[in-house]
Structure formats: structure tokens, C-alpha cells
Amino acid sequence: MNVKNVLQRPKVSIVVPIYGVEPWLRQCLDSIVAQTLKEIL
Fold first, then answer.
1. Helix (H, G, I), strand (E, B), or coil: what is residue 16?
2. Model pTM?
3. pLDDT tens column, 5-37
């Protein structure tokens, strides 16, 4: 693994537990998509 590959990796992992939360899942996913921290992508 070289330095360039390490620097291009996302800095944050997002884990979304989904069991039994279907009523709030859309709101959760919309919130993740609307984030503004560009280094996550």
C-alpha cells in the first residue's frame, strides 16, 4: 500500500443500524447524504 492510496481513503465510516427503524430510515439516509464534510466522500 502506498501513501497516495492511504490519503485517498475516506476518513469516516458510517454505520446505520436498520433493524426496526424503518419509519426513520429515510430521514437518516437523507441526513447522511446532506452532510457537508467533503473528506468523507
1. coil
2. 0.56
3. 556 666 677 899 889 999 999 999 999 889 887
Number of domains in the chain: 1
**Which residue type, as a one-letter code, is found at position 5?**
N
CB 11 within 8 A of CB 39: yes
Contacts of 40 (CB under 8 A, 6+ apart): 10, 11, 12, 14
Domain region containing 10: 3-40
C-alpha span between 23 and 27 (Å, rounded): 8
> Please, which residues have CB within 8 angstroms of residue 21's CB and are 6 or more apart in sequence?
28
At 36 the pLDDT is: 82
